[in-house]
Structure formats: C-alpha cells, structure tokens
Write a sequence for this structure.
C-alpha cells in the first residue's frame, strides 16, 4: 500500500481539455435515499462540491484541473481565490494521484469503482489508460442530471475506455456491477468521495461490497464521515483503533491519511477550519468471492485427482 501513500508526485491533471462551460459473505442491496429536485440535499451537496472544484481549478497554482465542474454550478459562478487549500480539494488531489499511479504503473489494474455524489468528473478529466473499465455508483437522479449537462458540452470518456453507471438505489448493487462487466478475479481500485452515507450500516454495506468483489492486494481509498467513528474526533488514537477494527473485520488494512501531511508534501497551506471527513487508504487482505470460487474449484480438482491416483495404486 506504500504506493498509495506517496504524496509527492506530478500534478494529477492528465487530460488538458479546452475550458468548458454551460449556460458468500453478504449480498448488498440498494443504498436508498429520496431525492426532491430543488430542495434535494444530495443534489445541493454535489453542486457545492463541484463549486469547490471549479474554484480550485481557477487558482493560479491549482491542485488539479476540472474543466467540467463549471457546467454543474448554476450561474453566476463565483471564483474565490483563497490563499489556503481546502480539505476537500486536497483529498481530491490525493485520490487523483493514487488512481493515476495505480492504473498507470501497476500491471492489471483496469477496473475502477467510484462511489460518488453523481457529479464526479473523474471518468472524463483523468488520463485513463486504454481498456480501463470505470464504474460510478451514485444517486441516479443526480447522475442523470450531470450526464445530460456533460453531454450538452460534448464531454467524452477517454478513447478505448468504458464507463458504466450503477444507481445506488439498485436492489442488488453487487449483481448490477457484475452484470455490467466487473469481475472479482481481476485487480481493481475502489474510491469513495461525496457518496451519501446516512448511517454506519450504509458504510459497512460499502465495505462488504468491496470485500466481496476486490481481489487480495486491491485498494480502497477516499473520504468517510468523521461522525461514523462514534468517538471524539480529536482523539486520534481512539479513532484509529475504531477504524482498524471496522476495516479489518471486512478484510482491509487501513491507514488514516493526515491532511496536514498531504498539504505539506504538495507545498500548500491547509485552510484552518474544521472538516468533518476522514481521509483513508486501505488494502484488501482477503480473497474475493471469485478468487475463493477458483480456489475451491482447484482444491476439489486436486482432491479428485488424488483419489484417482490412489485407486490406480490399489
């Protein structure tokens, strides 16, 4: 997992496009949440995050470029050029770097699963290698709205890559992922940022899903709500112990990532404000469901072969 924890790296910009604007273990079922147009909190949260990305992209020395964020933000679009870097934008850069390092420099990582708010432009703005399969799990209504805006401005997925949406409201997310082409016998990297987590049970369902499908040695990283720890956030040792127990119970070894460390390694000043998310990176230690099936199939074959050899000796 050391590769994910190397903060210092070239900017995660990858695809420079012209600026665009816009006038088994357990089966996981749908992660449901109601949506309600103009008063929809999920839609507003996604727009707020897009606004932060838009503002960051217009700084003199941006952490990343997101030429698509502006089409998600209702006019007038404000640009607030701040001296300090926002936690969310630092997390976005950390995740971008980890994704690009993994898919571009580690053989076999061609499956990317993104738990998002529905307005994540990573499938469009990052430089994915050919044959990458990208799966976005997010609120269907927000995703459809964002997809229409992206279509209106002519946004395209990088050539020779495939992009699939899985509504978080799906009755069986695991089955839907697999039906769209995900396989648990190939490496994958999993990311969560912006995805609406309402309860601890919601987040545990996400961990179970990743544990079921991710091969041993695969990665899961991103942001989780700090209130999930059910402890004083300032007590880092207690928070760390709680996270270790939660992740390890689902087969993951986890590290808490310090925003201060990320900011320092990127030569940025961190904004002095409370942030209610924890940045983490985890590695899968268990075998996926598909790996276990292959293991038992081979085990059964060897047993049958042994029985036949023993019978011949008799």
């Amino acid at each position: 997992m050391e590769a994910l924890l190397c903060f210092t790296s070239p900017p995660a910009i990858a695809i420079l496009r012209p600026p665009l604007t816009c006038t088994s273990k357990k089966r996981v079922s749908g992660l449901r949440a109601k949506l309600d147009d103009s008063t929809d909190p999920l839609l507003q949260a996604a727009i707020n995050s897009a606004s932060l990305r838009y503002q960051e992209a217009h700084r003199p020395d941006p952490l990343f470029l997101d030429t698509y964020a502006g089409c998600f933000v209702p006019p007038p679009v404000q640009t607030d050029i701040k001296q300090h870097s926002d936690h969310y934008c630092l997390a976005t850069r950390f995740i971008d770097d980890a994704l690009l390092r993994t898919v571009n420099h580690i053989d076999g990582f061609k499956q990317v699963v993104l738990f998002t708010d529905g307005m994540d432009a990573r499938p469009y703005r990052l430089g994915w290698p050919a044959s990458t399969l990208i799966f976005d799990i997010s609120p269907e209504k927000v995703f459809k709205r964002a997809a229409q805006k992206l279509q209106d401005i002519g946004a395209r997925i990088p050539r020779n890559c495939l992009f699939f949406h899985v509504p978080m409201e799906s009755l069986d997310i695991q089955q839907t992922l697999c039906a769209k082409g995900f396989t648990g016998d190939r490496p994958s990297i999993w990311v969560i940022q912006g995805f609406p987590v309402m309860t601890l049970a919601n987040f545990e369902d996400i961990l179970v899903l990743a544990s079921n499908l991710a091969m041993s040695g695969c990665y899961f990283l991103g942001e989780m709500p700090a209130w999930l720890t059910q402890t004083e956030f300032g007590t880092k040792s207690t928070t760390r112990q709680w996270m270790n127990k939660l992740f390890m119970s689902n087969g993951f070894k986890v590290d808490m990532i310090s925003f201060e460390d990320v900011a320092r390694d990127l030569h940025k000043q961190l904004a002095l404000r409370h942030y209610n998310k924890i940045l983490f990176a985890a590695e899968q230690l268990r075998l996926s469901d598909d790996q276990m099936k292959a293991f038992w199939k081979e085990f059964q074959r060897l047993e049958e072969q042994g029985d036949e050899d023993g019978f011949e000796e008799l």
